[in-house]
Amino acid sequence: MTDKIRICLPEYPGVEHIGALPDSIEVVWVADEAAAEALPNPADIDLIVPLRAMRAPILSLLAQPSATGRLKVIQTLSAGVDWLVGKVPPHVTVCNARGAFDAPLAEWVVGAILAMERGLVQSRDLEITRTWTPFEPTEVAGRRVVILGHGAIGTAIAARLAAFDADVVGVARTARPDEGVLGLDSLDELLPTARILVNMLPLSSETTGLLDARRLALLPDDALVVNGGRGRTIDAIALLRELDAGRLRAVLDVTDPEPLPPESPLWSIPNVLISPHIAGDSAEATVRTFRIAGDQIRRFAAGEPLQNQVPRYLLE
């Protein structure tokens, strides 16, 4: 058994941006589509950097008694870690790629809002039928935008919406009065004032189904729901009813279930715009995720505090 720190890395374009690693590290390379039998036993690895295709086999290995051995850190290349909820041994620290996706997600949210509020989606639908029918879209300026899940990404969204003179209100798990961010206990009184609700909540036992039928009913008629967080934070049946009735509109990058099946009624509702979970994706974001992973590996090797540690309550 080697006395070096053993790191498991995927063979994937962009991994070179991890950068140079110290001699104290031994890298175990795996194909990004590796099956469980192709992955090293977590008991023989100190830190693993998984890709999406590696998640299922990693979970399979973590479920084995031997997984409670050497593994100390899982450094994801994503901001969300809901795939690990209830699966991580107590001694394993999970770190995410917080910060890598702020820019593309914020751009997607702003683009989604402009597309719906300024009539671009409606114009696209008219274009498909070659129909020239002028209409009067609304402005974003002065509209109340409630950002639910006001972390780093929510802050980036708010900064961009400020350029449009939107009335932005942030809501987080706990209030941050010095930043003007309200707590979840204020959500019910805010929803009736929201022209636009931006949902960036991570998925946890606390947030699953948080936007249920009762809370969706609090939104005013014709309000826009923009979901770039997680599909299961919204009651899917209640949302479908509101959208199908035409009372609410939505832009959805995440859904429940996901991928959204072809037979879902959501595909054919005219006041809905759907993107296939790509809101945070960009070539630049991929580079940032690997740079974050590289910095984290070097910190781990040097015995320094790790960054972006995921709170344990989000993993339970």
Structure description:
- By secondary structure, the chain is an alpha/beta fold.
- The chain has eight helices and twelve strands.
- The strands form two sheets. The chain has a seven-stranded parallel beta sheet, with helices on one face.
- It is elongated and about 70 Å long.
In short:
With 316 residues, the chain is α/β, with parallel strands linked by helices.
Summarize the topology.
Blueprint: E1 5-11, E2 25-31, E3 47-48, H1 55-62, E4 73-75, E5 93-95, H2 102-117, H3 120-128, E6 144-148, H4 152-162, E7 167-172, E8 181-183, H5 187-190, E9 196-199, H6 213-218, E10 224-227, H7 236-244, E11 249-252, E12 272-274, H8 283-302
Parallel strand pairs: 1-2, 1-3, 3-4, 4-5, 6-7, 6-9, 7-8, 9-10, 10-11, 11-12
Helix pairs in contact: 2-4
Radius of gyration: 21 Å
Number of helices: 8
Q: What characteristic shape results from the CA principal axes?
A: elongated
Strand order of the largest sheet: 8-7-6-9-10-11-12
| Largest sheet descriptor | 7 strands, parallel
Overall average residue pLDDT: 93
Number of strands: 12
| Helix-strand sequence | EEEHEEHHEHEEHEHEHEEH
Low-confidence stretches: none
SS class? alpha/beta
Q: Give helix % range.
A: 25-40%
Beta-strand percentage range: 15-25%
